[in-house]
Amino acid sequence: MKDSYDALKTEGRNPRTLNIDRMSTVDMVKTVNAEYRAVEDAVDLVAEDIAAAVDLISDALSAGHHLIYVGAGTSGRLGVVDASECPPTFGVDPSLVRGVIAGGKEAMFRSSEGTEDSPEEGAAAIQAEGIEPGDVVVGLSASGRAPFVLGALRRAKELGAKTVGVSCNPGSLIEDAADLHVSPYVGPEVISGSTRMKAGSAQKLILNIFSTCAMIKTGRVRSNLMINVRPSNEKLVERAIRIIIELSGCTRDEAEEALREGGDVPAALDLIESRKK
Question: How far apart (Å, rounded) are the C-alpha atoms in residues 256 and 259?
């Protein structure tokens, strides 16, 4: 059965780590690191599914809709992290990409695993986000069966949103609950059931691909440069200046002056271009 814990691939025992508790420290480190090599290959095998989700997301963002990640535990934290990095990296409004985690903000810093067991709470959390028709809701669950996430996806569909399920347990319940699904199989964890490890890494990689590729496709990247970076601290100001110089061929002094006057990279580039005429 899809909802049987006995059938969950993410709960299996890893034959390569049965003796990890008796290894030397260096062998332990090498063994853990070797297990992570499976993550990139697993994600690559579902590249077409990921691309379909990226197209869905970028089309929604281009039409003025939103991207919302929802998850519990590690999966929920990963969604919040990816969403929170979009405004400084791509200059978008914080409401454009959002993360919802079972248990609320407190669950980012303190384990609240019991909150994932309620589909009603998942539905209520999505309802509270003000989901609109055309938005995209991405449900994240390593096992693919977290009731909070399933409840959130079902309510999102009722509200007219498009849905994507991400798990590391192919054939799970989340695949039936979502319009699209991405299910890389990374194999059993180093420590059985500790899905913060390989499954978590696969989910983080997929979320990074979702947001980065969607931002590229919606014009927020030029070449491989983050032209909408918000110059909100010394490091980002320096990055903005380098981007302006790279794209305009101006001097550093010209770039600094244009950035001061324009406030951001696109405005600075427009100023420099107008001065050439």
Answer: 5
Q: Please list the active-site residues.
A: 85, 116
29 by DSSP, 3-state: which? helix
Listed in sequence order, the residues at least 6 apart from 69 whose beta carbon sits closer than 8 Å to its beta carbon are: 76, 78, 79, 80, 82, 83, 97, 98, 99, 100, 137, 138, 140, 207
Nearest Cα residue to 162 out of 140, 177, 141, 144: 177
- Model confidence, pTM: 0.89
Dmax over CA atoms of the chain, in Å, equals 72
First and final C-alpha spacing in the chain: 69
Tokens of 113: 């695993």
pLDDT tens, position by position, 198-234? 999 999 999 999 999 999 999 999 999 989 988 889 9
* Residue-averaged pLDDT of the chain: 92
What stretches of 123-202 adopt beta strand conformation (E)?
136-140, 162-166, 180-182
Percentage of residues in the chain having pLDDT higher than 70:
95
**Residue 5 pLDDT class (50, 70, 90 cuts):** very low
What are the residues facing 67 on neighbouring strands? 97, 136
Three-state secondary-structure class, residue 101? strand
**Under DSSP, is residue 209 helix (H, G, I), strand (E, B) or coil?**
helix
Q: What is the DSSP letter of 6?
A: G
CB-based burial of residue 224 (10 Å sphere; 0-12 exposed, 13-18 middle, 19+ buried)?
Answer: exposed
